[in-house]
Amino acid sequence: MPPGHADRPGPPGLASDAALRGPLADKVRAYPGTLTYLDLIRRNKRQSALLVLGMLLLIALLGAVLAAALAISGAGPDALVPSALLGILAALVVGGLTTLWSWYGGAGAILRMSGARPIAPADDPELFNVVDEVRLAAGLPMPAVYLIDESALNAFATGRDPAHAAVAITSGLRARLTRDELQGVMAHEMAHVRHLDIRFAMLMATLAGLIVFASDAFWRILRHAPRAGRRKEGGAIVIVLLVAAVLLAILAPIVARLIQMSYSRQREFLADAGAVELTRNPLGLASALEKLAADADPLVNAANRGTAHLFIVNPLRRMREAHQRLNTMFS
User: Fold this and answer.
1) DSSP 102-122
2) pLDDT (tens digit per residue) in 30-53
């Protein structure tokens, strides 16, 4: 440690090492001493594939149960198996096609939905210089840089891989940060690119949205389906299947959202660690995060529930007021 380092004050409001030592001690001891954040990143990448597979299986289950419930209520028990198989096939085909669309077009759609516009180096030389610094430190190609004309303090990264990545920052955050703080935020976003979080987040947004859409479509079909011609044979099976379908239609979007938000939260912690590795300046990132946390209105007008998990701070007012200030599964 350099002489005098321990005596140098950090940015105003930041807790000292001594103050942090107590509350964090138990959490630090929760991991083995030999485990590094690089090990956690590798574990996350393995888990990502399993979670995407799990979401596809949830979509298949949802398709099977909803199709069977709708068919059996009108055609009787004989339609149960064929309808379920057809529902699985339809769900997997739709899930595969939407995943393929997300792979090639998801990033562009997210940027358009967020109101982000591309900027050139001449528009903001300092921002491009900072992004170039951190991408060189990470050994990555230069991403496209976007600006969101919002007073909110926020930023995100997206894309399917480092060669097709983009980083976006709101004009409000750009105006409020010092150069060190800007470097910390951009390093955080480049860490998401480096860890391939952007790919996982994009796919999860698409699959979670598909589950919500399928559940909503089931409710609409059930509400408007003709009841007069429904057969009464196999009444117990029909009732059980309809109850199962209703429960699944309620629970599936919640489960999908829990997976999406809670796993994104884990990746935010690792992106912070990755940012410090790239900048070697933890106080710059810590000061930027303090400004983000103190912002009373991080709202991004063009953000929605499908893209909220991409942002460094939850951009939705109601979700933030309900959950963001608490350490909950929806945070």
Assistant:
1) HHHHHHHHHHHHTTEEE--TT
2) 667 778 777 888 888 888 888 888
pLDDT at 166: 96
DSSP-derived secondary structure letter, 227: -
CB atoms within 10 A of CB 147: 18
Summary mean pLDDT of the chain: 78
**Of the candidates 158, 163, 143, which has an alpha carbon nearest to the alpha carbon of residue 205?**
158
294-308 tens-digit pLDDT = 877 656 666 666 677
Q: Which residue has the higher pLDDT, 207 or 289?
A: 289
Catalytic residue among 181, 189, 268, 290: 189
∠ CA 323-325-329, rounded to 5°: 40
Longest dimension (CA), the chain: 85
Which residue would you say has higher pLDDT here, 97 or 328? 97
| Six token digits for residue 245 | 């379908």
**Is 189 considered catalytic here?**
yes
The DSSP 8-state label assigned to residue 77 in this structure reads G
Cβ atoms within 10 A of the Cβ of 8, count? 8
Q: How many residues does the chain have?
A: 331
226's tokens? 């003709």
Please, are residues 288 and 175 in contact by the beta-carbon 8 Å criterion? no
Give the pLDDT score at 137. Answer: 96
CA distance 184 to 155: 12
b/e string for 293-319 if b means 16 or more Cβ within 10 A? eebeebbbeebebbbbbbbbbbbbeeb
Q: How far apart are CA 322 and CA 331, in angstroms?
A: 9
Q: Which residue has the higher pLDDT, 331 or 3?
A: 331
